[in-house]
Amino acid sequence: MKESVDSAQEVVLRDALVPEDRAAIQTILQSTGFFNPAEISIALELIDDGLDRQEDSEYRFMVAEASGHVVGYSCLGPVACTVSSWDLYWIAVSPGTQGSGIGRRLVLASEELARRHGATRMYIDTAGREQYVPTRAFYERCGYGVAATFTDFYAPGDAKVVFLKVL
After folding, report:
1. How many CB atoms are closer than 10 A to CB 24?
2. What's the pTM?
3. N or C: which terminus of the chain carries fewer CB neighbours within 10 A?
4. 11-166 to CATH, choices 3.40.50.300, 1.10.150.120, 3.10.580.10, 3.40.630.30
């Protein structure tokens, strides 16, 4: 079922997971066509950690809802062994709501959440293959710049592109 968000629907962002979010986020991750089964499994492990450990988890989440349904999420957390660097590990918006500003709102809310925890830099890793051109353009529109590119990182011909924004 394809969802849509129009100007009449209010999108609510929250910075806490509830158990019902897991299945909705899994559906979003599967429906985007960007994440392979191993990546989805890792994303769900982080969600499970967040649900199980709550404030003791090293991961933080933003969840976007429209009309009571989860339509997107982000997962972020501090980079180990750094003073104030954070990673935006995951961001996904349901295909039917992409292009409506939800992704940008999730990024901005994630940055604010990280700032409240002392972050001064946010990093985002993504793939370099052709499929990810729109993703990389989205990060650039959100004010991120390419900090590093690792050739053939994920696979031959698929670089790892690291984006950075000073918060």
Report:
1. 18
2. 0.91
3. N
4. 3.40.630.30
